Amino acid sequence: MNSYDLNAVLLVLQMAISPAVLVSGASLLILALGSRMANILVRIRALSARAGAADGDDRSRIQIDMLYARARLLRWSILAVSVCVLCSAATILTIFLCKLFGITSGVALTLLFAAALVSLIAGVGALILDANLSLKALTIEIGK
Description:
Layout: H1 6-15, H2 17-53, H3 58-101, H4 107-142
Helix pairs in contact: 2-3, 3-4
């Protein structure tokens, strides 16, 4: 850092708070998405076993297809939110490097933080699509 006085260090730490909070929140979202994915995979395996035992069970096949579509959506959601965490961590690192080397341009910081937010939006969008497919799968399961 060009100056190691307390105020300069506190300012840098203050700037790193928003991306750090985003990392924390996105990490919790990844945890929840992983749980949803695990439940879907368990359900697919159970339905596959049932469909294999009862030849010609069209409802099970339809449910498996919908669950597989949901699993693909969740995979994209997990990937997008993981990119958000990566971009947020890179933003924090860039904040410290900019201060260390005296770089005053904020273009890299802006692009990294914007990429984090865009990927978070994409991940949540995929989660919303998964919720809609979940309701469709439930409708088939209960026969309405």
